[in-house]
């Protein structure tokens, strides 16, 4: 029996650890689902005027509506969109009173931009959501020589265009045909892999238990 103590303790400890990690991931799954539900509820609320000094902590995903003018100052961000193909997001300066706001007007195809010199409109109403995109990574290249960006870096783009440092992602555009397809804010791009992680840990626990059983069987067989 003494020869069985070590493999038995090893098996129990390993299984307990792996099952504990699986339970933790299930708890994280419930937490993430509640976060996504809150974000979806925030996205769906009635739009309001753009706050004077919005912050990411208090106002991200807040629905807003604003009317202003487009003067053609914009940048393109390379962004293939599922169902729409390869193309760009158009980030433009919307002048509303004494405010200059950075607006994501939506998607244009790579070879189908109807306003390559910039979109112009004397009066357009944008309804959308405030966003502070988290798209820049260590591997994101800088803008190329043609001014094409590879991530919606709101801080850097707003500094270049002279706007307030946040983004309004349009879900509706009224008053002008800008040749863009709005790509509204959703929770689809927010990762939620905790269920897969939980399944992985539970399966590893099963494998560990099987290996422990096999080891104990070998110890008993050698004894016999």
Description of the molecule:
Helices cover 38% and strands 26% of the residues. 21% of the residues are buried. With 224 residues, the chain is of the alpha/beta class. The chain has two domains: 2-39 and 191-223; 62-174, OB fold (Dihydrolipoamide Acetyltransferase, E2P) (Beta Barrel), CATH 2.40.50. A hairpin with an 8-residue loop joins strand 1 (63-78) and strand 2. Helix 1 packs antiparallel against helix 4 (194-223). A five-stranded mixed barrel has the order 1-2-3-6-4. The longest helix has 43 residues, at 2-44. The two termini are 12 Å apart.
Question: Characteristics of this structure?
Answer:
five-stranded mixed barrel, 2 domains, 26% strand, 224 residues, OB fold (Dihydrolipoamide Acetyltransferase, E2P), alpha/beta
Helix content: 25-40%
Based on CA atoms alone, the radius of gyration comes out at 26 Å
Which secondary-structure class do the elements indicate?
alpha/beta
Oligomer: single chain
Care to give the gist of this entry?
With 224 residues, this protein is α/β, with parallel strands linked by helices. Helix content is 38%, strand content 26%.
């Amino acid at each position: 029996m003494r020869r069985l103590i070590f493999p038995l303790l090893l098996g129990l400890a390993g299984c307990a650890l792996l099952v504990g990690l699986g339970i933790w991931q299930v708890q994280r799954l419930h937490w993430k689902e509640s976060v996504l539900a809150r974000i979806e509820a925030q996205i769906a609320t009635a739009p309001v005027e753009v706050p004077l000094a919005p912050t990411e902590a208090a106002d991200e995903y807040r629905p807003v509506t604003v009317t202003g003018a487009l003067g053609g100052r914009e940048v393109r961000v390379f962004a293939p969109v599922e169902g729409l193909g390869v193309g760009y997001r158009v980030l433009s300066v919307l002048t509303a009173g004494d405010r200059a706001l950075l607006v994501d007007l939506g998607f244009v195809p790579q070879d189908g931009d109807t306003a390559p010199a910039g979109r112009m409109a004397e009066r357009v109403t944008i309804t959308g959501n405030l966003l502070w995109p988290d798209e820049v990574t260590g591997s994101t290249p800088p803008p190329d020589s043609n001014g094409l960006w590879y991530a919606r870096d709101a801080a850097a783009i707003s500094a270049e265009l002279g706007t307030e440092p946040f983004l309004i992602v349009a879900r509706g555009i009224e008053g002008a045909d800008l040749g863009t397809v709005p790509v509204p804010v959703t929770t689809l791009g927010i990762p939620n892999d905790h269920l897969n992680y939980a399944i992985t840990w539970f399966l590893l626990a099963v494998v560990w238990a099987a290996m422990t059983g096999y080891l104990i069987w070998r110890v008993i067989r050698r004894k016999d």
